[in-house]
Amino acid sequence: MFLRVGRLGHMSAQPLDTSEHRSGALLDHLARRMRLRSESVLAPLGLRPRHLVALTVLRAGGGTGQQALATILEMDSTNIVGLLNDLEAKQLIERRRSPEDRRRHVVELTEDGAKRLSEAECALAGAEDEVLGALGPDERETLYELLSRASAGTAVNCTETICAGDDSL
Amino acid sequence: MFLRVGRLGHMSAQPLDTSEHRSGALLDHLARRMRLRSESVLAPLGLRPRHLVALTVLRAGGGTGQQALATILEMDSTNIVGLLNDLEAKQLIERRRSPEDRRRHVVELTEDGAKRLSEAECALAGAEDEVLGALGPDERETLYELLSRASAGTAVNCTETICAGDDSL
DNA sequence: AGGATCGTCTGTGCATCACCAACTATTTAT
DNA sequence: ATAAATAGTTGGTGATGCACAGACGATCCT
Fold it and tell me: HTH marR-type domain location, by residue (chains A, B) (predicted)?
């Protein structure tokens, strides 16, 4: 008996969670292993793991202001500036002033950025093979799809929060 | 452009794999979001995210020496010491000398440790709801199962490496 | 005009972490 | 038995990541 109310079921009326399978620690563990390998692979491309995260988020939901980006990446906005400076210097992203609100910088992936991101993803195949070696191709795709949806969900949630300003955060 | 001669038979007729679906960046992104929330939730329990990672790994494949643990967690062994000191001071783990090789400290979860880990996982339900809100219960379980297998795979791989005597590391 | 907001820049302080060096206890090889 | 290698421990150092604060210009809102 599960009524899918909002996207955020804060009610948490789950009576018994069979066994508490929290993914947090595993996520942390695998992310670390992946990140360590990524650094060396990405270095020749002039990128660092965090750049890749930013590019990935931008590809998924581009055209966001920097503050929204800070919310999504959950980083301090002052540090976003440096991150975007790096990427803009390499012409992987563009900052354009929003026509509606000229204070705002709308950040978007350039073609070069999308290309570089793809290259990086290709280059990371080996790293992923090492870390996700226990999973077959289909399982990796499933994993990707789940992570992707979760990530996109947070983005939606963040922009909603910004637009609607409903949350008590 | 890119000839895919990968190790795994990706010979499917998909014209182009749209783009290489690398989970690394998403893993990083979600792990960060989860970790930030975890810290405040875990603080009352006297734990930090990294402790949880260690406990989780130990629960999955206990009875390992510290060096093996360092390999699995991909941390410097000197820093493992401090981590385990924390956990041992709280009686969440035990260091016992191995009977076969008395130099070795075999690290294992205590009952208290297992209990505390469960408590922590319960306490993290809210954090996970926020981060994985876009996924339903089944999907979260799938995610957990995939991450779990991937993590266990690395452990196996690491111990294999140790036992078999690696070359050219 | 006044106040709030977005982005930018600078700096400061704290935590993390890899690395080095030295030491003990123990095993293994000669 | 002696020497060398290994597991763990301790302490220190330096680079890095990151949150936070302060100040500024530009812009929006009222």
Answer: 20-152
